[in-house]
Please model this.
Amino acid sequence: MNLRVILGADLHKSRVSRCIAIAIGAVIFFGPTVVGAQTQPAQTKPSSPSTTAKKSPGTSAPRPPYDRALLHPALLKEKAPDLYKVKFSTTRGDFVVTVTRSWAPLGADRFYNLVKHHFYDNASFFRVLPGFVAQFGISAYPAVNAVWEHADIKDDPSTQSNLRGYLTFATGGPNTRTTQVFVNLVDNKRLDSMGFSAFGQVTEGMNVVEMLYDVYGEGASSGGGPDQDEIQKKGKAYLDKGWPKLDLIKAATIIFPEPSAMPATGTKPATKPASGTTAKTPATAPAAKSPQ
Model:
């Protein structure tokens, strides 16, 4: 046999043996190698300061549609000016009330604070009786009504007669005036001796007051009008559902002696709807807080 072939074969075997030995050593030292697809380790995301959910500006509690000062009747005791004027912008038109504090100081002070903090805004004329009175003064918002329901003030001596156009607080008995007010549509002098103390007078726009929607009549349970207790509890939603044609106060604003000026043009009075009924006489059954 050729010596070179034998030596070559031996040399080849020697090299193969060394390769096998090296491979075995590598396996022992480094461990087995997985052939094929490899599982990648989960990549850890770096922490970020934005991982906490941010609060949206709209997540805070919604702002109530009324002056929150109204929720604290005991704090609203500012003394009224000796004479002030209030402009009522209504769905029927505008009218102006002039209040003389000396006529009924406690009533004038209460009315001033209510108007200043927009208590009457969005409130309805819920009891309009032709030949008698136009009554308002229950808030459109139940939360406001709840805190004013028992915020009574003492009676004022009656120094003015309940004549046509004069404003007076409604009562449920002695010393029970809170927020409800009525405008005399005619001379109601019989009310003078019953504790109804006039504190102001409609000095502009009495024709607007006389055109307020009056078809519903007296309130429950004496007539087809709304129930005062239900208005207190449910607010404007209750009136909108059952008595949608009632006129309401869009805004009541002090225009004198406050620096704000009355707009140059006011809302023109609308035409009063025909009721098809004759003027009604004063109610014989008392409402919750109403002149009778």
Observations:
- The beta strands are 83-90, 94-100, 127-129, 133-136, 166-169, 181-184, 198-204, 249-256.
